[in-house]
Amino acid sequence: MKKLVLLASLGFAGCSYVPQHAIAQKDVKVYKVPVDGTQDVAFVAQAGEDCLFTEEQQNKVYLFKRVECGGRSGWTPDWADFAVKK
């Protein structure tokens, strides 16, 4: 019950992420988990592939974004080669 209350309070505090459409500028490794230094690749987004950033998570070093591309999903550092569509 405490977790539910906490989650509800975060939702009302305006902490929600606005999804962004992005295009892979070159082949980009997308990781299974948002962990600094991870090398556990979930898939590779191909250059020109249309993707969607759905959330973000700040770690000690990197800001990771959850990315969905063609039914696949994983995490990528925010400096990865994606261009956000305006």
Structure description:
This protein is globular. The strands form two sheets. A five-stranded antiparallel sheet has the order 6-5-4-1-7, with no helix packed on it. The model is unreliable at 2-13 (pLDDT under 50). The protein is built from one helix and seven strands. The protein is mainly β. 13% of the residues lie in helices and 45% in strands.
Keywords summarizing the entry:
mainly beta; 1 helix; 86 residues; 5-stranded antiparallel β-sheet
Give unreliable regions as ranges: 2-13
Radius of gyration, taken over Cα atoms and rounded to an integer in Å: 14 Å
Supply the helix-strand structural class: mainly beta
Give the strand content. Answer: over 45%
The chain-level mean pLDDT equals 86
N-to-C CA distance: 40 Å
The main sheet comes to: 5 strands, antiparallel
Task: Name the helix and strand elements from N-terminus to C-terminus, one letter apiece.
Answer: HEEEEEEE
Structural shape: globular
Q: How much helix, percentage-wise, in residues?
A: 10-25%
Strand order of the largest sheet: 6-5-4-1-7
Count of DSSP E strands?
Answer: 7
Number of helices, where a helix is a run of at least 4 consecutive DSSP H or I residues: 1
Question: What assembly state would you assign to the polypeptide chains in this entry?
Answer: single chain
Q: Which helices and strands occur, and which strands form pairs?
A:
Elements: H1 2-12, E1 20-24, E2 28-31, E3 41-45, E4 50-58, E5 63-69, E6 72-77, E7 82-84
Antiparallel strand pairs: 1-4, 1-7, 2-3, 4-5, 5-6
